[in-house]
Design brief:
Elements: H1 9-36, H2 41-44, H3 58-66, H4 88-115, H5 127-145, H6 153-161, H7 167-190, H8 196-211
Helix pairs in contact: 1-4, 1-5, 4-5, 4-6, 5-8
Length: about 210
């Protein structure tokens, strides 16, 4: 699908809409989860909104559009304000991927329904490519953020379930996680045949098409 971005203007517009939606819902859900657990930091900073401009990181947006993975502006919250000191931060972290998963589930259900309806046979409609793009982008964003490397969401779950004897490891990973992630991205782009993130996107595509 990425190969069609510049050859098909309509598909480009649909892809941008899908990317902006996936990032916005993901980051908004972090802030909403924190708010529901008692922290108003995100609300006070104007992030408890579905306005995409409050959540979009322009570099992360470009990466997600053209590479297949990306990020939004980190959702601000104060873990000391949360009702559940241990699991509250995990709930906040996983709220973003959970929102993307909900999009995937409903998107697939609607696509399957459209496949059996007359609307799905209308080649002029943008609904089908929009829904398909929403599903693929949301699933990719969810899986990427579940990687247990800081600053991704999966790291919070890893840090919570690891026992105290791994504290030194957690400190080191927290400090160096962004560099590890950046290193993986660079290696992925310069080593022929590695394609870690390319394989992720390819796997997502195959999974979505198999479900449909």
């Amino acid at each position: 699908m990425l190969s069609n971005l510049f050859s098909d203007p309509i598909f480009f517009v649909v892809w941008v809409i899908a990317v902006v939606y996936a990032i916005t819902v993901h980051e908004f859900s972090h802030v909403l989860a924190a708010y529901l657990l008692g922290d108003k930091t995100g609300q006070d900073m104007g992030r408890l909104t579905l306005n995409p401009l409050a959540h979009i990181d322009w570099l992360g947006l470009a990466m997600l559009m053209f590479v297949g993975f990306g990020w939004g502006r980190p959702a601000p919250y104060n873990p000391y304000n949360l009702r559940f000191p241990k699991w509250g931060p995990v709930i906040v972290s996983l709220a973003g991927p959970a929102a993307n998963l909900i999009t995937v589930i409903f998107g697939i259900l609607i696509l399957r329904w459209l496949g059996n309806s007359t609307l799905g046979n209308d080649s002029s409609t943008m609904l089908l490519p929009l829904l398909l793009s929403l599903v693929m982008i949301s699933l990719t964003l969810m899986l990427f953020n579940l990687i247990p490397i800081p600053p991704l969401d999966g790291a919070r779950l890893l840090f919570t379930i690891l026992p105290a004897r791994f504290n030194d490891f957690k400190v080191q990973l927290a400090q160096n996680g962004p560099y590890v992630l950046l290193g993986l991205v660079i290696l992925d782009s310069i080593i022929p045949g590695l394609s870690i993130f390319g394989r992720l996107f390819s796997g997502v595509s195959q999974l979505v098409y198999s479900l449909l």
